[in-house]
Amino acid sequence: xxxxxxxxxxxxxxxxxxxxxxxxxxxxxxxxxxxxxxxxxxxxxxxxxxxxxxxxxxxxxxxxxxxxxxxxxxxxxxxxxxxxxxxxxxxxxxxxxxxxxxxxxxxxxxxxxxxxxxxxxxxxxxxxxxxxxxxxxxxxxxxxxxxxxxxxxxxxxxxxxxxxxxxxxxxxxxxxxxxxxxxxxxxxxxxxxxxxxxxxxxxxxxxxxxxxxxxxxxxxxxxxxxxxxxxxxxxxxxxxxxxxxxx
Length: 247
Hints:
Mean pLDDT: 92
CATH topology: Spore Coat Polysaccharide Biosynthesis Protein SpsA, Chain A
Distance between the termini: 32 Å
CATH class: Alpha Beta
Order of helices and strands: EHEHHEEHEEEEEHHEEHE
Oligomer: single chain
Largest sheet: 10 strands, mixed
CATH architecture: Alpha-Beta Complex
Radius of gyration: 18 Å
Shape: globular
Number of helices: 7
Number of strands: 12
Strand content: 15-25%
Number of domains: 1
């Protein structure tokens, strides 16, 4: 079962300290089946290449990408690059890590089996990162861990994905419409089941590394009726006390 997944690390060529950090993290976990994927650098990409890579759909989500800067677009391109590598591979599942991720606990063989066993949906993501909101009732439990349904999540530094979900994200978000962490949109429009590990296993090393992407929340100003309805339902569930959070 453990031979069914491969780990992909997203790293910009100039970020050698980050690369050393994440490879050391994996060595501590005695994990060797990983591949380095060179990220698309927002500081170096040419304007014409950037223009070719963004969606020209002016009616959906992010018209002409006026709400996205070059690093944000390149972040999406980097994750799409991983998806394309993954779907051509012989592996059924991929664990995608960004180079600022650090383990907060041991990723044991038993825990790996537990996570892989819980790929039960046609298109599914299992987050190993902090979850903003998840349902109290778990899908499955083993020892001190559980797999939960996720209502809200934004981090992209550590998540498992299966091939159907990866294929769907390539089709939906290339050319780029939105950021790779816009998981609620992916859930609504791609039908991807969002699940996660509780307690979480990896976090971002913000003490050592700053984000490569400027913070910009303008995308939330784009009105999407289906997302609005989803948020309204979640608000009601929140009031009813249905959620837990890692925040």
